[in-house]
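User:
Can I borrow your eye for a moment on a structure tokenisation matter? Would you put together a sequence-and-structure record for a protein of your own picking? Please set it down just below, with no commentary around it:
AI:
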Amino acid sequence: MRKIHYLLILLFLLSVLYVVAEYASLFEYSEAATALVVPVISVFYLITCEHKRLYFTSFLVLYSLAYLLVFVDTKDIHQDLNYYLSNVFYIIAYVFLIFGVLKGIPYRGVVPRFSFTIIILLLLNSYVLYALFSDDFSRDYFFRVTSDALETVKEQDVAPSQQSIISLILEFSYNLVILILLNVSFINYLYRENKRASLLFIGTLCVVFSEVIQYAIYYPSEVVELNIICYLLILAGFLCFYLFAINRSTVEKQTFKGV
């Protein structure tokens, strides 16, 4: 049996545990299942990938640490410490992945060729960030988070007990790096048009869509189906990242110098 089959079996078992726990309202078990997805994929990457890249390894390790914080109780130190630490880990992890992808993109060939696309993406990103963090939206978002809403996909990302400048900066930075990664992976896909670039872009899309769904989850209560969709998107996204990392053909070894 190929090693990836073992990975798929483990992810399937975690998914079954998650779905059963969600419908049975056993949120501690569903939270644990979610927290183990990325670490399991990271371990398999470290074991099976022959050509490890520092940027991608750092991305997976930091993301795994952020998820594993769900098993650490830091409320005695600070009530919102898990929230701050996990978001810092997420942001740094995405920065590593962004730099890894950018390292493999020849700017002189990409910028002139996709200049119009890049301008459109910059305008769209500016509008999205403005919409997310306009005064009305940010005020509504922070003050309507309830204890019920915390029992969602990223349970370790417990929203801070009160609105603060630090939490605003973290939320803005997190959404900014997510958008940058989406744009960079999209440009990389347009430029390369190969299997690895498509896996990276699809994985990024899955992660971004899971983030979008999380904004919707804060308002309805106990929407199990949305939780499951969000979980499956994260799983599919990181599985694509894993396949992106281990699928390295001879031609790609010579041409792709990034992650």
